[in-house]
Design brief:
Layout: E1 2-5, E2 13-19, E3 22-29, H1 33-43, H2 48-55, H3 67-84
Antiparallel strand pairs: 1-2, 2-3
Protein name: ribonucleoside-diphosphate reductase
GO biological process, one term: DNA biosynthetic process
Keywords: DNA synthesis, Nucleotide-binding
């Protein structure tokens, strides 16, 4: 399990599990429940790179980020950390 503290969005944290570069689970702490349950359903079982590419740069209204964008940042950070630890 990995945790990521979000910035600039309603959700406060993202907790996720990766196995062989596939997102096995993702949970958002806080935020808009309907939208975040939808994101969870769409990304679980997908390759980490596909999720990063699809969600990176999505804004929420006038904010320069969104919960999907924060998830892409969390996964990109995870990739960097795991490659460093190999």
């Amino acid at each position: 399990m990995a945790k990521f503290k979000t910035s600039g969005v309603c959700a406060k944290e993202i907790i996720f599990e990766i196995e062989n570069d596939i997102v096995k689970s993702v949970e958002f702490v806080g935020g808009c429940p309907g939208s975040l349950v939808g994101i969870k359903a769409l990304v679980e079982g997908s390759h980490i790179d596909d999720i990063i590419n699809k969600l990176k740069g999505i804004n929420c209204g006038k904010r320069k980020t969104s919960c999907p964008d924060q998830l892409s940042k969390a996964l990109a950070e995870y990739k960097v950390k795991t490659k460093t630890n190999e």
